[in-house]
Amino acid sequence: MARMQKTDLTTVKKVLTSFALGRSQESATQLEAEFGDLLLFMIHLADREGIDLIRAGQRQVERRAKSMPRVVRGGR
Fold this sequence. Notes:
Strand content: under 5%
Number of strands: 0
Shape: extended
Low-confidence stretches: none
Radius of gyration: 17 Å
Mean pLDDT: 84
Number of helices: 3
Structural class: mainly alpha
Oligomer: single chain
Order of helices and strands: HHH
């Protein structure tokens, strides 16, 4: 069995963006099903590697939140 070439995250993001933009004319129900399939596939791949995808996503949100400027409410 041939090994796949290593692909960087930027390439994967571009392919997923193209996938999403190419389906803008589909019904919300069809889009939901296709994005659900993608999510399940990602969960499966992560699980095979012993990664809790939900926890990994939560950690990314926390990391990004630390690097974002704080919003001051009320003009103070």
